[in-house]
Every structure is written in structure tokens, then in C-alpha cells.
Amino acid sequence: MSDESTQDPERPSSPRRPPVPEAMTPAGWSFLRENNRLVGFVFYITRLATSTDEKARIAVRALYETEDPETYRSSLEKIEKEGATQELRKQHRDMVLEMMLSRLAENFLVYVTELLTLIFRTRPETLRSSETVRLDAILKHGTMEELVHDLAERRVNQLSYQGMRDLAAYLSNRLGFDIFSGCEQLERAIRIIESRNVIVHNRGRVSELFRSRVPSVPVVIGEPLKLDGHGIFGDLEFLTLSVIEADARAVQKFELQADPMGHSEQPPRR
């Protein structure tokens, strides 16, 4: 397989999957299951295109191979140049890659939100802050558990609107928890999330905000963000490993419940 083919969504190379841990939080299992759905869909689209071309080759072979060699050769050439695989590569490649990156980034953000919710509800003391809460908002809850549930939901909603850099700083400074193992990993995650934001909010064209938040990437404001399949599958592998490692650290630090893979409703495939 050529370098070019490995960078196209119609012929993706399988990402190297980190070993699935024996136990994770429900948030961790949900992240892995959603990643499996994403990868499965992309490979389905790939197989659909290549299968369509293969069926066309079989039909051409049956009709022309022996009786009309010239038509046979020209028909095969047309399939190679204009078939479903080439159409996917030339016309729909960018759309597939944008969809992959967006879904990957959103899946990670949902994981962070679900993990924070689990931390706050399991360890209510982590909700302590200088923020004031109205008395009537407190009294409307019948039990302390209901109050903690509501406060946790509020805090998660507030944090979900922050950028990844601010969110990581909050977790580190306020909770003593690093969601990434180092600065390099954090910068890569920021680039993935900001790429998603450009796709969702600016039709895939580089914004000034993106350039300010991801200065390491050479881009021109207003130009389409350049994506490639090989890089996106690398990002998928990176975020998967990051979630597995962060999940294990969170379980240990906050004494969260971690379920074995067999207890998961739909355990990720090994």
C-alpha cells in the first residue's frame, strides 16, 4: 500500500488499539464503545466502495474479457479512474475526515464531562469553592443527595464551556488531577478539539481563534483546515490511550467504581 492510500478514508489502516483494561468507569467504557462505532462505520464505507468496484470488474470480465478485449481494457481503466473508490477519495474524502475528527473530539469531550460528573457525585468535597448558592435553590432539594447531584450538574455545565487548556488547569489546580500525562499530550488534545471547533463552527476553515490557540500548526486564516486519514487515526489512538490512562488515575485518586469489561452492556472488542 502506498503512502497516499494510507492517508485516504476509503483505504484506512487499522489504528493500533491499546490493550483494553480489565476494568474502567462507565464513562471509560462508553468512550471505547463509541470509538468502535466510529471506526466500524468508516470501514463499512470503505468496504462499500471497494465492493462496488469489484462487482463492476466481475461484470466487465464476464461480458467482454474474451469477446471484446479492447472494451474490456477500457472498461477496467474507467473503473480505476471513475469508480466508487476514486469518487470517495476525490469527492467525499474531506467530508469523511471532518466527520471522523468531529465525532472523535466530541466523544472525548463527553467522556470528560461524564468523568467529572462521576467525580463530583462520588466525592462531593471536590465541589467546594467560593461560589455562592441561593438559599431557595438549596431548600428546593429534599435530600442532601439531590443537592449534591444538582451542584455537580451545575459545575460540569460551567466547565464544559471552557477550552481544553482552562479545563486541564482547573482539574490540576483544584482537584490535583492531570487528565493528560504531560504538556505535549495536552497540546495535541487542544489541537484536536480546536480542529473540531473549526469544522463545526466555521465550515472547516481556519479561524483567527484556531491560529491563536494552536500556534504550532502552520495555517492561513480563511483556508480549509488540512486533514489526512493517517493523522486522524493517530489522533484516535492517542485519545484512546489518554482516556485509558486518565481513567485509571481517576479511579485510584477519587476511589471511583470501576466495572470489569464483562459487566459492560456492550464491551469493546479486543
Description:
This protein is mainly α and 270 residues long. The protein has eleven helices and two strands. It has a two-stranded antiparallel ribbon. Helix 2 runs antiparallel to helix 3 and helix 2 packs antiparallel against helix 11.
Q: How would you briefly describe this protein structure?
A:
By secondary structure, this protein is an all-alpha fold.
List keywords for this structure.
270 residues, mainly alpha, two-stranded antiparallel ribbon, 2 strands, 67% helix, disordered N terminus, disordered C terminus
Write the layout of secondary structure elements.
Layout: H1 3-6, E1 23-24, H2 26-64, H3 69-82, H4 84-91, H5 93-122, H6 135-139, H7 144-160, H8 164-175, H9 183-202, H10 208-213, H11 229-254, E2 259-260
Antiparallel strand pairs: 1-2
**How confident is the prediction overall: mean pLDDT?**
83
Side by side, the strands of the main sheet go: 1-2
Shape: elongated
Distance, first to last CA: 25 Å
Radius of gyration: 24 Å
Helix proportion: 55-70%
Low-confidence stretches: 1-11, 265-270
Total number of beta strands: 2
Task: Indicate the proportion of strand residues.
Answer: under 5%
Task: Give me the secondary-structure category.
Answer: mainly alpha
Helix/strand order, N-terminal first? HEHHHHHHHHHHE
Largest sheet: 2 strands, antiparallel
Q: Total number of helical segments?
A: 11
